[in-house]
Request: fold
Amino acid sequence: MRSITFSEATLEAMTEEMTRDERVFIMGEDIVRQGGIFGQFKGLPQKFESERVRDTPISEAAIIGAGVGAALAGMRPVVDMHFVDFITVAMDEVVNQMAKIRYMFGGQCTVPIVLRAPDGITRSAAAQHSQSLEAWFMHVPGLKVVIPSNPADAKGLLKSAIRADDPVLYFEHKALFHVKGPVPEGGDYLVPIGKASVARSGRDITIVSYSFMMQRALEAADTLASQGIEAEVVDLRTISPLDKETIFSSVAKTKRLVIVHESVKVGGVGAEVAASVAEEMIDYLDAPIKRLGAPFVPIPFSPALERLVKIGVDDIVRTVREICQ
Amino acid sequence: MVQIRLFEEKIGELFLAGEIPGFVHLYVGEEAIAVGVCANLGDRDCITSTHRGHGHCIAKGAEIEPMMAEIFGKQTGYCKGKGGSMHIADFSIGMLGANGVVGGGYTLAVGAALAAKLRKTDQVAVCFFGDGASNRGTFHEALNMASVWKLPAIFVCEMNEWASTTPYRTTTSVQDISVRAVGYGIPGVIVDGNDVFAVYEASKLAIERARSGGGPTLIEAKTYRIKGHYVGDPEMYRTKAEVQERFEKNDPLKNFATAVTQKMWLNARELDTIKTEAERIVARAVEDARSAPYPEEKQLFADFYIEDGVK
Reply:
């Protein structure tokens, strides 16, 4: 299978879906001339009429709100949030409007919108350009939240998100854009929303992760294998709805669980996963559940400090070894 | 207008009698605005409304019975009892919903107008909002976006002088909201919001302009909030005399009756017939809403996510 980058995979998904369905359009900041702040939309403006590839004013509330309004009026918008950090200025549009409208109006309408939000730590972008905020949206009924970790899932999940009639938040880690991997060709390749994948099988411990931390988790699993510990690595891919079945069946087998994410550990996705496992299958466990996430502090600028909030392969290996002893 | 007035008066009565849950915000005294604007719209045109939205619904053509049932929280309501007074919508006639968030409707209307532009139809989207909402940041974002993209959107400010319990002049930088249009390079017009014919004419021009690709207009309709912010509001912030004086001097329904009788379009008997018929519709809706079932428990998770999300 040919290998392409995560960024190219999302571009392929956009191109295929915009070709397939003329109701699909994209809007956001810096898309037409720049091809997206991370180049993830390069070439789209040349392929489609200008009405469907739109540069917006720096008006996040209007970008998302107009996306919701267009979805209500029969379109299938994809809107780009530039950096997820800026979603904070449009929280009403996401939480009170996008998430609630279908239910609040008794199912009269659908809200088929995709909100793409680059997130995560890259090269000292500091406190307001480095966050991973996915856990907030897992707490909001009415949204679906997907968060791919590799190019193939990036393509398949984006296509599924665009075809979904529910509003979908699509988080894409900035450090993943240049990561290469095999990606199936053809317009029919979809990855289902709400389905985790077992990225690596093992019998000794389950590592649950997603997004960029999957890269670290898989590296850690290689290291652990060389030390005689076979880790099973579960990639959540979607955090809302959470695929508890896949998590539970893995933990039932391995009896040990570590959850790894880049976002703040307190109140994070890991807390929800850990609580679910503790509630429903604590008798299976041979060791305490461990969570790895960022410390409870804003992300600092200086590389000397920034590296302290990141989870490394060594952290994962050490934690797994602690509870596998 | 008569239908809206009678509906709202009945809702106020029922709320005080404890028959309606939640809270309700009445449109009494502002009827000419919704009616004057919506008389220019078809079912394919969209509107977004506010927490004070019953009048917009009725003017856009919503049916009284499912509105009443919704306000009662019944299964037969427009939203199957999941929305209530602040969240009535009827997508079949382009009524994209009342909105519990002040200033929440602007960007939705911009999106509906954008959809019309992308599809190259002649539909328009109208956003109703109050003077209080004109101080939201979304006002700026939406009007700028609608202007720069020349969208078929019409922004109708219902200047009722009160933002909840606060007089607009103490919180708003300008006397007339319409002057803010200058900042967006679009027309801003003032109209007597208690004169349905004036509202009709002003919005007709704006809507025709929008339909023909001329872009958005900001209309400021001057009116006055006759009722409290919500039913049950003790209204400690103003005197009864002030309200009474304003209402007696400038009641949109009286203005309408005077105008049509003077022009001999309708006589007193015909006006009475309209009123009687409207009363009958409201009374029947109340009876139906009272006897309608509440949603069953199994409805809690209905009308929510689309089953598998992927088609």
About this structure: Chain B is about 40% helix and 10% strand. The beta strands of chain B are 46-48, 125-130, 153-159, 162-163, 166-167, 188-192, 217-222. Chain B has one domain: 2-292.
